[in-house]
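Retro notes (design track)

What went well: tokenization of the new backbones is finally stable.
What didn't: we kept losing track of which sequence belonged to which structure.
Fix going forward: every design gets posted as structure first, then sequence, in one message. First example under the new rule, 246 residues:
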């Protein structure tokens, strides 16, 4: 599973504040964040196996992030390549239109995908059909079984799905903004939540060769200015360091 926590249009100094854990097979190779595109300038970590990414932003202030969706759906094209391609657009609206076109032209496994900038935050759920909704101002929590209290029970993973939904609701409750809180203060609280095993979103399943492989903390301004810190390992035992994107 993966977890994405977004505070959208909550803080004046950063319309996008996000904490995201990536859960993946322990032996799947990946690379830390770097500049992966120049026109526009795109910053993202990289899946070294398929070449795409799960999380990134560009110089226009566009964020694109994805989680797997627990549905039985095969896909020929990597979902990470969809994220990487979406990051070539100048706005969330343009990226959204691209996503809608892409699922008509290529086959993807199930996903939950977010595109967001200072003007719009658009959430996609793909399970063979595409469901689209606009996020309102506030905090949003995305996991493999849905977002913001709208969850489904995955066939064959009923118990895990129900547990994940409960965890997402607890994360949402813990990360509601406090009076007078600044974006960087909220992000520090978010970091403490996504590394805390009490919330169930820092995953260790060595018996399944699976777990939380990395974690991202990002503040993104409407002018594309960004503060990006990355833990290249489970955040419970790996320090967040400024991404080397010079």
């Amino acid at each position: 599973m993966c977890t994405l926590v977004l505070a959208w249009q909550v803080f004046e100094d950063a319309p996008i504040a996000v904490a995201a854990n990536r859960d993946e097979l322990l032996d799947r190779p990946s690379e830390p964040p770097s500049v992966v595109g120049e026109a526009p300038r795109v910053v993202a970590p990289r899946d070294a196996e398929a070449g795409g990414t799960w999380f990134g932003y560009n110089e226009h202030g566009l964020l694109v992030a994805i989680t797997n969706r627990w549905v039985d759906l095969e896909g020929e094209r990597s979902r990470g390549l969809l994220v990487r391609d979406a990051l070539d657009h100048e706005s969330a609206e343009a990226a959204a239109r691209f996503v809608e076109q892409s699922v008509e032209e290529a086959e993807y496994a199930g996903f939950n995908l977010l595109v967001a900038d200072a003007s719009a935050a658009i959430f996609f759920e793909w399970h063979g059909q595409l469901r689209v909704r606009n996020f309102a101002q506030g905090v949003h929590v995305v996991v493999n079984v849905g977002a913001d209290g709208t969850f489904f029970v995955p066939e064959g993973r009923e118990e895990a799905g129900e547990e994940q939904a409960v965890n997402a609701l607890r994360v949402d409750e813990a990360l509601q903004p406090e009076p007078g809180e600044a974006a960087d203060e909220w992000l520090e609280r978010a970091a403490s939540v996504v590394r805390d095993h009490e919330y169930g979103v820092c995953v260790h399943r060595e018996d399944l060769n699976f777990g939380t492989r990395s974690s991202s903390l990002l503040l993104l301004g409407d002018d594309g200015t960004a503060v990006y810190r990355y833990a290249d390992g489970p955040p419970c035992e790996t320090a967040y360091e400024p991404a080397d994107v010079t």
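Added context from the reviewer: The chain has one domain: 3-242.
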